[in-house]
C-alpha cells in the first residue's frame, strides 16, 4: 500500500502508568522447558501440484513441523505463511521460525508498552502463546502470519469498514481506499446511504446519479485489481438502508445481471465462473446487503406502507408497500443470493460507542460491525482441543487460553500499521478485537449433541458467553494497567449498558446437561467480574468477539469444521505423508458413538457403513434417535435451514460483532421460505442473515463450452452458406457416403455422468476423421438400449455422409436433462446431460485445438495454462486423431476397482488419547472432501472450483475455502 499509518507512535496511553503490569501464571507450558523441546519435530517435503496437469505449482523440501501436524496443515502453512523467496536462504523453513517471528514481536511490544509486571511475566506470556500456537489451540488471522515480524507494514487486520459521503471527492476517495485495501489482499465494507438518490436534485438543478450508479465504478475497479494482481475475487460488502429512495433499484441490481448472464449464455457467450465473457457483467465483485429497521419489519408484519426518505432533508418522498418491497428482496435473494439483510436497530442496540457514531456497515463477511473507518484483527480458538478424555468441555482451561489470546490481540494494536490515517486513528482510539472459535460442529458431534438440538445450542451459547465474558474481564484488567480505550469516557454508560445486556442474556440460557451447566457457571462468574471491574477500571477494548469464517487458519489448526458451521460431511479426504491420499470417516464419529454407549463391534459396523454410503441412514445398529448427532451441512441428512438460524441465534447475544454464515437452502426452496428465514432471523435477534439457494447462479465450476468464438464461427458459417446459395443457386448437391474400412482405428471410453455409467466406442477413418460411434449405458432396459443404438446409427451415417463433427458438437453440447452433474473425466468435470458429455469428449478426441477453441471446449491442461499464462494455446499442438490407440470395444466387465482390505489409520483425539481406529481406503479420483461427497452421494455440490489448484471448494462462513491449498474466495 502506498499509504500506511503506524499505531506505535500514537499509542502513548499504553504506557500511561495506570498499574504495574500483568502478573501471569503458567497454564500450558512447563517451567524451565521451552515449548519446542516438548515436541517431536520432523522434516517433510511440501510439493503442491495441480491435479489436472500434474505440474508442480510449489515445492519446498525439508520443512520442519511437529509430528502431530497433518500433511494438509503443514502444506498450507508452508505455502501461505512462510516468508522469503522460494529457493533462497532467506526463506523460512520451520514452524519455529514462523511462530517466533510473530510471538517475539508481540512479546517485545508488550514489554515496551507496559503490559507485563516483570521480565519473568513476559517470558511466561511468550512461552504460553508459543505453546498454544504450535499445539494448534488457536491461530491469529492470516494478515498476522503474512506481515508481523517482516519488513512489510505490520498490518494485523483483515476486516475494514470504510465511509463515503455525498460528494464527488468522497466517492473518488472511496474508490482509492478500497483499491489499496484489495491490493493488499484484504476486504472492506461500507454503507452508501448518505449518497443522494436518483430521485433527488443536485444544487445545480440536475438530477443526482444515485448510489447504484457509483457502484458500477467501484465494481469495475475491484474486478480490475483482482485480475491484475490476484487469483481470487475482491472481498467487499455494499450496504444500503431500506428507506433509501433507490432501494428497489439496489435490490434488483444483481438479479437483473443474473438474467443478463442467462441471456448471454444462451446466445453462446462463455458466462461460466472465470469465463472469458463473464467480466462484462456488473456488480459481481461485492456482497450486497439491505440495512432494515425495526420500523420496516413491523410494517412487513402489519402489511402497511413504509416511507422512503430524502437523503438531505430526511422527508418522506415516496411510500411503498412494505410487504411488496420485502417480497422483492426475498425474490432477488432466491434468484441470485443477494441481497442479505442486516438488522439496524438490533446492531445498534448492542453498540458500545453510540456517542461516537452509529454502526452503519460491516466487513465483507458480515461478522465485524463497528464504526466507520475502522478495522478489526481476529483470532480463533480450536474448540475440540478443550474436550477432555471424559468428553466434557474444559471450561477453565478454555478461559485461561482466552485471557492469553485477548492480551496478545490488544498488544498488536500498539505496533500495527493501517492502510489509511482515518482507519488507524479509529482503531487506536477504540481497539476493536475479534476473538472467536472454530470446530464447534466437530465438538458437538464428539459430545453426542445434535447441531440442531436444544442441547447443542445450549452448549454453543454457554461457550460463546464464557469466551466473550472472559475477554471483557481481561479487557477491564488491562484498562487498570495500560488505560481504557481513548473513546471510552464519552461512551462509558453505553458500554456498561451493553455489558449488562450480555450478562442478562447469559442469565436466560437454559442449560440442558451437566456439561453446559459447568460452562455456564464459569460464564456467569466472568460476567459478574466484567460488571464489577468495568465499573472501576473501564475497558481497554470497545469490542471483543466475532465469529469469523476461519477458512485458511482452520486448516492450520487441523479443524474439521470452520467457525460456527456444522460438519460438512461424515467422510473426509485425507492427504498422506509421502504423497497419496485416502478416504476416511470423520474422526469424531467413532468418538461420538462411544460416548453414546455403542460397543466396539457396533461402532466398527456403523463406521464401515458410513464409509460406503456417506451418511448414517439405515446404518446397522444405530438408533434413529441418534441420527441427529450426525447431521451435516451436506448429504442425505442435511440440516434444515432454520437449524442454522437457530444456532446463530443461540450464539449472537454473546458476541460484540456478528456471525459469518450463510443459510443454505435446496434448489427447490421457495421465495416464501426465504422470507420466513429473514423474518425469523429478525425476531430471534440476529444482526445479519444471508441465504444461498443451490444452483441459483448461472456460473458453473468449470467452463462448459460456448463463448463468443463459438457465436462468431456460427455467424461466419451462416454468412458463407448464404453467399454460396446466391452464387450457385441451380447446383444440386448429392452427398456421397464415405464408408469406413473393414479394419479401423477405434477408441473405447468408459464414463460416469451424475452416477450413471456408460461406454462409448468411436471408430475413425485412416486419416483420423471420426466415422462412427456406439453407445452403451449400464443397466439400461431394452427400450433405452434400442433408442441409443438408433441414435448411434443416425450420428454415424451423418458423419459418413459428411456432416461435420463440429455441427454435432455445437447442437448437442449444453443439452440439459438427467442424469447430469459430476463426471469421472478430468477434462469434462461437469456435464449437463449424457449427450453434453459425449460430444464434449468427442470434440476433445477428434477436433483440432482451433476447432475446439471456436466451440469453447478445452482440456483440463489447456484451462490450467489459461489460468497461468492467460492463453489456452499449446506450445506445440498435437492432433487428437493421431494419438488414437488401437483397441477393441471395452468389456462390460469394466467396473470401478474396489479396495479389498481396509487400511487401518491410527487417529488421536485433541488431548492425546488414542481413539478407535477408523477404516479408510484410497480416495479414488476425488481431490477434496467436497468431490469425495459428490462421488459417494451422486449429487453435485454447488461450490466453485479453486483458481489456484483446481479442486472444488467448500463453504466456510459466508465464503468458500479450498482444502487443497487453503485459498479462500475473498476472506482470510
UniProtKB/TrEMBL annotation:
The TSCPD domain sits at 742-845
Q: Where is this region: Disordered?
A: 1-21
Pfam families, sorted: Ribonuc_red_2_N, Ribonuc_red_lgC, TSCPD
Ribonucleotide reductase large subunit C-terminal domain residues are 157-692
Q: Which SUPFAM superfamilies does the record associate with it?
A: PFL-like glycyl radical enzymes (SSF51998)
What cofactors does the UniProt entry give for this protein? adenosylcob(III)alamin
* Taxonomy, superkingdom: Bacteria
Residues forming the Ribonucleotide reductase class II vitamin B12-dependent N-terminal domain are: 45-136
Q: Which Gene3D superfamilies match?
A: 3.20.70.20
Question: Where does the record place a coiled coil?
Answer: none
Q: Which reaction does it catalyse?
A: a 2'-deoxyribonucleoside 5'-diphosphate + [thioredoxin]-disulfide + H2O = a ribonucleoside 5'-diphosphate + [thioredoxin]-dithiol
Q: Does the keyword Disulfide bond apply?
A: yes
What's one GO MF term for it? cobalt ion binding
Q: Which NCBIfam families does the record match to this protein?
A: NrdJ_Z, PRK06556.1
Protein family (similarity comment): Belongs to the ribonucleoside diphosphate reductase class-2 family.
Instruction: Give the protein name, as stated in the record.
Output: Vitamin B12-dependent ribonucleotide reductase
The source organism is Nocardioides marmotae
